[in-house]
Amino acid sequence: MKVKIEAIDDLNKSITFGALEGDIMQLYKSFKATVMVGDGFVKWTIQYEKATDAAPKPDLYGDFAVEVSKGFGCLSSLSVETAGPLAFKT
């Protein structure tokens, strides 16, 4: 998968990545993930638009992100949102 850093927010300690290429783009027209880091916690937000109605929700990617965060000893939360035209909020 090829991703692009789309936004860095120093004040909120967050970074947003957007998928550009790869197998994930066969399932989703758009796919963005934001990670926000605080003292002892990580919040992941995934926003996506399905390529077809048959495409699954990206739960697998979200679960992976949460498990990675736990590996660093952080509490973590996940928000998965569907999108029309992407207007990403952190």
TrEMBL record:
Pfam families recorded: Bet_v_1
Superkingdom field: Eukaryota
All copies of domain Bet v I/Major latex protein, residue ranges: 1-77
Gene3D superfamilies in UniProt: 3.30.530.20
UniProt-listed GO biological process terms: defense response
SMART domains named in the record: Bet_v_1
Name of the protein in its database record: Bet v I/Major latex protein domain-containing protein
Organism of this sequence: Escallonia herrerae
